Amino acid sequence: MLTPIERDAVLSKSGRHCHICGGGIGADEAWQADHVVAQSAGGADAVENYLPAHAVCNNYRWDYSPEEFRIILKLGVWIRTHIERATRLGMGAAAAFEAYDRRRTRRRVRRP
User: Fold this and answer.
1) Residue 65's pLDDT band (cuts 50, 70, 90)
2) Contact, 25 vs 16, CB < 8 A?
3) How far apart are CA 19 and CA 52, in angstroms?
4) Which of 4, 9, 48, 57 has its CA 20 to 30 A from that of 82?
């Protein structure tokens, strides 16, 4: 667990920007200290091995290597273009993703 001083040091490394998407991190905005080298790859729990990230960005980056994550981003841009152009591939992917996201959202809803 990072101390408040260590969290400030991590956040200042990127000028208060998410190192994944580049978006700003507001003063009152929650953010996560993301491991540069994943723990699963031997990365340390040290200020030097952290960069700030929005929670959603960090969640989607998950445990991928930088190379794997670049491929994922390229695929996302490629399929988005197909969706915007309303190609058969794009419309099929959009429908499949919407169904997936509905199922995922339902799983997260806690029922009393």
Assistant:
1) confident
2) yes
3) 6
4) 57
